[in-house]
Predict the structure.
Amino acid sequence: MSDELREKVSGIGAQMQEFHNMLQSRAIEMETTGGDPEVITKLINGADAMKDSANIYLSWARHFVALSDGGASEADEGEEDSADFQF
């Protein structure tokens, strides 16, 4: 079950990264075609906010997968690892 959970978390991370990249690409596309600068800024900031939120979510998901796999002591190890806060 833990392997399946890890795969799900990995898939969610990949989807969130793809979402972030696509939203940024759309903002760049809008910028080159003369889109509203205010909307473009909101899209870029929104993409960054979504990335930050996703990284927090993924960090907790990894924590709970580790907890389900081996108990609290394993879940605490490396919890503040920088890899937890990046896609």
Q: What stands out?
A: Residues 22 and 47 are 9 Å apart (CA to CA). The chain has one domain: 2-85.
